[in-house]
Amino acid sequence: MSSEFGPRDKFFNRELSWLAFNRRVMEEAQNPAHPLLERLRFLSISGSNLDEFFMVRVAGLKGQQLQGIEDLSADGRTPGQQLAEIEAEVNRLVDEQQALWHRMRAELADAGIIVLHHPDHAEPLRAALRRFFIDEIFPILTPQVLDPAHPFPFLANRGLGLIFDLVRQSTREKVRELVMVPPSLPRFVRVPGDAQQWVPIETLIELFGDVLFPGFIVRAQGTFRIIRDSDIEIEEEAEDLVRTFRTAIRRRRRGRVILLELDADMPGELADILGDEVMGHEAIVAKIDGFVGIAALSALVDSDRPDLKFQPYSPRFPERIREHGGDCFAAIRSKDIVVHHPYESFDVVLSFLRQAAADPDVVAIKQTLYRAGNQSPVIRALIEAAEAGKSVTAVVELKARFDEEQNLLWANQLERAGVQVVYGFIEWKTHAKISMVVRREGGGYRTYCHFGTGNYHPVTARIYTDLSFFTADPRAARDAAQLFNYITGYVEPEALELVTMSPLGMRDHLFRLIDAEIAAARAGGASGLWAKMNSLVDPRIIDKLYEASQAGVPIDLIVRGICCLRPGVPGLSETIRVKSIVGRFLEHSRIWAFANGAELPHQGARMFISSADWMQRNFDRRVEYMIPIMNPTVHDQILDQVMVANLLDNEQSWHLQSDGRYVRAEDDGKPFNLHHYFMTNPSLSGRGTTLRQRKDVPQLDIGGQR
């Protein structure tokens, strides 16, 4: 029946769906439930998200357009059509960001944090700023004249600058100057003697133009900012992946200008000059009526005002591991365990690796590394293990976007310590998050595995909701070993027992699981599907979900970001509901549950965790895993607690409508905040014997929600 619907009837555009997600992020800046500086953080995040969107997604479409590629998106749009709609929506978003900033600036002032855009009305203040400018900023700035002898310089990605039209007082000669703001300078300068007053750096430069240009009159000026194409493409025939990436990273810095942001009141002549010199005729031009580079507002969020931020939260350490004297291996050996980040500490993952590094009975460690951060205790643990004489293998993914340089650095350090570093596949990314530790026990060997839905990154683990699953199941161990061998030696697995991996059959496995629910529904039995992920884009999976809906399968999807599926369309997707949760923490875990003969949730449901979203890239161009959860306690925690809480949330949730709009959930007199719930209620899996002694784990009831 879905064949009766055209592409635009069936699919939302991927890029416009992402912009809708960023709008939800921006809307949190208006959420009165958040403290003021946290609201400002959401506004700045919406700015940095938009920067990355232009650097990668818009850059890709622009490249297709310039090459004359007319391939249609799944929803039937050409690159040019997508770019036109993106530009229109971006202009609306940018205008709303600026309006929000205008209102929030007033709120900040009421709270005692003053941002002075034009501090020229108070002479004592002006004098203090002038002295600061001369002493601290002037020596770092380098004005450059623009004339035939001084061609327009190269401007770095996200570069902020000012352009001036000047008149020499002695000769009335017209001169044009460019001043780029070095990245070493802060975007906001604290007013000397007042910790709560700030001035944007560009305001200071404009204010004290006479210091920069003595003997000149400033006739016109304006602030601008550029965004460049920052995607990296690697040829499949690359002979040396490391050398190729180093070259590509250098090349990325000179990518095509994709976005040119200009002061709305910049004179047309100056705007035209910038457009000509930075190839702005090929770029999207955004005229900013307010603050250029909204992402930089993050600097104000760092103000020392705890009263305007979320109350600090200290994650719990799993009690089960404490019951075993801190011995991770003993705790895992006794029973599978799942750790729910950020409510439970990422330190348990670090403890697992540190114990492995120090344990004389551990003989081997294998570890995937996608994003590890720039101060990584994971890397240190692997180095310590190698230096202790253990066999350590690290799969370092060089194609982790914007972390390529950091990962090259980690790879060098690991290799110097004696770690066997493997870079994986040229054409695929290794996105699976798996660690395995082989330990000598009782005359043989036992393997302990960690499967994560998120990265081995201790910083993001404090703000991303993810699951860490630990098991000593020999079947999982054998599967993990085969997966590593596939990455390191291109040895394709023959018979995986628990794990399913992409690109070798994950989509087909999901098809079989959905087909089983379709068959149950058509036979008049109970059926259902719950799935949580970051993005839903793959057209084949979406078509299969439509098929399930037409068979009567009730489907609840929790999709934080991009969703190309159109829910609630009569004859197509009537039984599908989609929600997005945006709040204090970033929802990141991937969890999929299939009814398997009874109404969800129940103990017999087939449930999986995964590193993959439902996108073409995850199924076809990445190494990913999905693993079933069979331990009853772990199953209960993930299905009856994590998934049910996500479905019950009505304070941070948005419901996707069939026309593409997202509408805030209503609490109906029973408010439920997912993040607050897990911050105040203990988990199941990590509680150990205290579960039998305490009754403080509520039973969540999904009844009546559908």
The strand count comes to 27
Q: What would the average pLDDT be, to the nearest integer?
A: 89
Task: Report the top-level CATH class of the largest domain.
Answer: Alpha Beta
- Overall geometry: globular
Major pleated sheet: 10 strands, mixed
Question: What do these coordinates show?
Answer:
There is one protein chain. With 706 residues, the protein is an alpha/beta fold. The chain folds into three domains: 2-303, polyphosphate kinase like; 326-498, 2-Layer Sandwich (Endonuclease, Chain A); 501-688, Endonuclease, Chain A (2-Layer Sandwich). Helices cover 37% and strands 21% of the residues. The protein is built from 22 helices and 27 strands. The strands form four sheets. Strands 14, 18, 19, 20, 21, 23, 24, 25, 26 and 27 form a ten-stranded mixed sheet that branches. Strands 10, 11, 12, 13, 15, 16, 17 and 22 form an eight-stranded mixed sheet that branches. Strands 2-4-3-7-8-9 form a six-stranded mixed sheet, sandwiched between helices. It is globular and about 90 Å long. 45% of the residues are buried. The model is unreliable at 234-241 (pLDDT under 50).
